[in-house]
Specification:
The chain is α+β, with helices and mostly antiparallel strands and 267 residues long. Helices cover 28% and strands 41% of the residues. The chain contains four helices and 18 strands. The radius of gyration is 29 Å and the shape is globular.
Amino acid sequence: MSGLFCIFISIYCLKPINAWWTLFVRDVGLSLTMAGLLGLIIDLSYRKHLFRDAFEASIGYILPEELKGEMEWIYESNIICTKSNYNCTLEKIDDNLCFLFVACQRTLLNVSKRPEKIEPKLEIDEWLYKKEGLQSEIISFGYKKGDKNWSMDKVTKPIKDRRSLTIISKKIDLNPNEEIVVCFEFRETKRQNDSHYQIFSYPTIDPIVTTAAFDGIDIEVGFGYRKFVEKIDNNVYRLKGTLLPYQILVIRWWNKKDHTEWLNNPN
């Protein structure tokens, strides 16, 4: 403030404007203003690094060596999924097989103070059934960012990689506090006594899973998490917490009749 005051005095109060005393007061004001700005920048940077150093020192002191890297990895998560709706539907094919249809919508938010690049990706399994029409299929994949939309078209072909189909969008710039909505649908052929596993690349807050099945099938949902899943409706499940990257979502189903026979079999 004193620097700005000196500049104000030199411009509006001291005459003549080119006199040595006027220029001296102006230069003092400029020096004080620059010093204040540099001090503010250094202070903010110092506080940021001090906080980080204090955090790293504390986890380094508390945690065993094997967990330090994992905590730092979590601490550096800059993209968080704030909304995740995962819909799973089973449709009967015959007495042994069924189609698994999945539709998902995820909202990803940049919680850091700098731009981040993300690369939405979907990978599904191929189960190598010989009969036509039983192969896995990515039905749709795309995202919405503000007023911009992108979705796969007939020209965009998933990549065959080992035993899976993979589709990747181009890299997207996400500014601080900016979000993107990623949507996808796919189909796999499964058995009537089977399970489906899904992992996400970003921390996911309170993920919701909705299930639907044909008659004679029971379904349950679980997460690889320290808390149990919460059933909020007959076919709606929610994990109250944050699912970390690569912690697994598991959807398990079985034929009720086969299950009862198995339970009643003494052998």
